[in-house]
Design a protein that fits this description.
Blueprint: H1 3-35, H2 52-79, H3 95-120, H4 123-134, H5 149-156, H6 158-163, H7 170-187, H8 210-219, H9 230-234, H10 242-250
Length: about 260
C-alpha cells in the first residue's frame, strides 16, 4: 500500500469519526440539554448545567482526540492489519464465536480502562495527562472525547490491544468501537437513564452507571470503571456514597455537591 492510499484511508476514517462525534454527541445534547432539559431536570446528576465555554473547550480537545484516534485506527486497520489477529470472512470461526467477541472485547477494554485510568490518577501523571479531561467537573456529551493528546493516545491504545491479542473480525471491532462511544456519551451525559433500584439488581450492581462516572468527575476519586464496577468493587475503589447518590438522583432529588476540587 502506498502513501496515497494510506492518506486516503486516514481521511476517510477521520471524516467518519468526526461525523460520529458530532452526530451522536450533538443529537444526545440537543435531546437532553434543549428538548428535555426541564422534563429531565429531576434526573440530573448535578443541579446546574455546564456553560457554553465548557462545551467549546470540550469540543476543541475532542477534535484533537479525533485526529489521534483516526491515526491509530489507520495504523491498526490499514497499515499493520496483516500482522494483527484480524480474520476474514466474518464467520470463519463460526457465528457464535463472532458474537462472543463482543463480550470479550468489553471485558478486555473494561480492564484496560480501569488500569490506565487508575494510573493516570497518580499525582505525577494527573496534571500532565488526565487534568484536561477533569476540567469538566460537570461533564456533558461533548466531554466524551475531551482528552489531552497523551491521554488520547492511551485511550486509543485499546484498538491495537484488541487487534493484536484477540482473533477478531474488523467489522466486530468497528461495531464495538461504535458501542463504546455511545456508552461513553451516556457516562458523561449528566442525566441518569437507568430506573430506580437498578443499582441493586444482580445486573445493575455491576454496571457503571452515568451517576457513577459523574461522581468521578465531581470528586476525582473512586468509580474508575468504564462499563462495569467489577474492578472498583474488587479493588475497593467504588465510592461509599455511590448508592446514596444513585437513589437520590433516581428519586428526583439530585444534590449539588459542595465538594470543591482544585484542578
Amino acid at each position: 500500500m502506498n502513501w496515497k492510499d494510506i492518506g486516503d484511508s486516514w481521511i476517510f476514517i477521520a471524516t467518519q469519526t468526526t461525523t460520529r462525534y458530532f452526530v451522536i454527541a450533538g443529537v444526545v445534547f440537543f435531546i437532553f440539554y434543549v428538548l428535555l432539559q426541564r422534563a429531565m431536570a429531576a434526573r440530573r446528576n448535578q443541579t446546574t448545567l455546564p456553560g457554553w465555554k465548557h462545551y467549546r473547550r470540550d469540543i476543541g480537545f475532542s477534535l484533537i482526540t479525533i485526529l489521534i484516534f483516526s491515526t491509530m485506527a489507520t495504523l491498526v486497520f490499514i497499515v499493520f492489519s496483516d500482522y494483527s489477529n484480524f480474520y476474514w470472512p466474518w464467520d470463519k470461526y463460526g457465528v457464535i464465536y463472532y458474537y462472543l467477541t463482543f463480550p470479550a472485547m468489553l471485558l478486555i477494554h473494561d480492564a484496560y480502562f480501569y488500569a490506565t485510568h487508575r494510573l493516570m490518577h497518580h499525582p505525577k501523571l494527573f496534571r500532565l495527562v488526565h487534568r484536561i479531561h477533569h476540567l469538566s467537573t460537570n461533564p456533558s456529551p461533548w466531554t466524551a472525547y475531551a482528552f489531552h493528546p497523551l491521554e488520547a493516545i492511551i485511550e486509543a491504545g485499546i484498538i491495537p490491544v484488541i487487534a493484536f491479542t484477540l482473533p477478531v473480525n474488523p467489522s466486530a471491532l468497528g461495531l464495538f468501537l461504535l458501542f463504546q462511544f455511545f456508552f461513553n456519551v451516556y457516562g458523561h451525559l449528566g442525566f441518569e437513564l437507568f430506573p430506580a433500584k437498578f443499582h441493586k439488581t444482580w445486573i445493575g450492581r455491576w454496571v457503571s452507571t452515568g451517576t457513577a462516572h459523574n461522581q468521578h468527575h465531581q470528586h476525582f476519586h473512586g468509580n474508575y470503571g468504564l462499563y462495569t464496577l467489577i474492578w472498583d468493587r474488587l479493588f475497593h475503589t467504588l465510592r461509599k456514597d455511590y448508592d446514596q447518590k444513585y437513589e437520590q438522583v433516581t428519586a428526583g432529588k439530585p444534590v449539588q455537591s459542595s465538594h470543591k476540587v482544585k484542578v
